[in-house]
Amino acid sequence: MGTAQERILAITSLDGRYADELGMLPAIVSEHGLIKRQVEIEIGWLATLGGGILPDIERFSDNMIDFLNSLAENFSVSDSEQIKVIEKKTKHNSKAIRNWLQTKLMQYEPLAPYLEIINFGVTGEDINDLAYAMQIRDIRDQVIIPELKQIGSNLEAKNLEQTDLPVIIRTPEAIDSPSTLGKEMHVFAKILQTSIERIGAVAIYSKFNSRPENLQSMTNSYPEVDWPIVINKFVHSMGFKTVPSANKIEYHDWAAIFFTEVASSNSILADAAKAIYSFGISVRLTAERKQDHLSDSTVAHENYSDFKLAETDFGIANVLLAQLASIRSRGDLDSSSLNQLALGEAFGYTVLGHRWLNNGLSKDL
Fold this sequence. Notes:
The chain has helices at residues 4-8, 25-29, 31-49, 62-73, 77-90, 93-106, 124-161, 181-201, 216-221, 227-236, 253-290, 297-302, 305-325, 332-361; strands at 166-169, 177-180, 205-206, 241-242. With 365 residues, the protein is mainly α. The chain folds into two domains: 4-120, Fumarase/aspartase (N-terminal domain) (Fumarase C, Chain B, domain 1), CATH 1.10.275.10; 125-361, Fumarase C, Chain A, domain 2 (Up-down Bundle), CATH 1.20.200.
């Protein structure tokens, strides 16, 4: 991602030297990733409004729905760039997306009469809240859980390889407790599996209910429509639960739980990395002492440096995840800013920690 010059000038290593290590994460947490999901929501809501629920608007034809779906499916970085150009004039991202979508619909005659119902009844915060929920869902399902499962498998593989390698476990209760490196790998794998289950069990909620105490503009315009059912169906179609009652903002308790659970998995993996590094270095140096030979310290640490890097990146990620977990006490603009600023970095360093840990586990320890 990015030219060589852009990487050299990047402020963080995530956009610089480690940009190629982040896999599909940038496509999810980048500004393009956010805009793409905002557009998908706008289009999905317009299709819902055109689904025959409004008495004065005919049901959209299959061709009209196909055109809308094609806009979402074919949305590109170039489209995001166009929206950013519009945003310089509107000074508001939701208005910029609406203007972009109106321009697209004007190019397709059957949908041209429906420009004014784009974004009907919902606020920019509603769109953003659902878009952030989509980002977190995709981070969890496409990145975090698959990578944690891979790490668990790698730990179990090392368990089988290192069943006979003795180590000494130092704890407050038992300073010199004998074990094997393989057994310790197995213990961390089992703890990690529990963490994976907790992360996967977090239910994702979203607010999509217009103004405070709720649905005013929708109900005033179309009192005959059962808007709670329409909204619940729309939100549920994306795999989320609907917040039963909220003010202008949704308090994101579920998000705080999710960020905390990911931080917990990071702590587990940081402990594993630290333990493997300590055990490995100790075993290597002990073996070399028995052979009456000590290698250069650089060589002695070479196979274990990935674990120290992983521990460091998990630590950075957890600082940022703690900030994200405080999102429930913030207003809508503050929450939006925090998400845009910290979401990519928090999960970027998490993914980077995963990469270092897997790299270390792939070596001959």
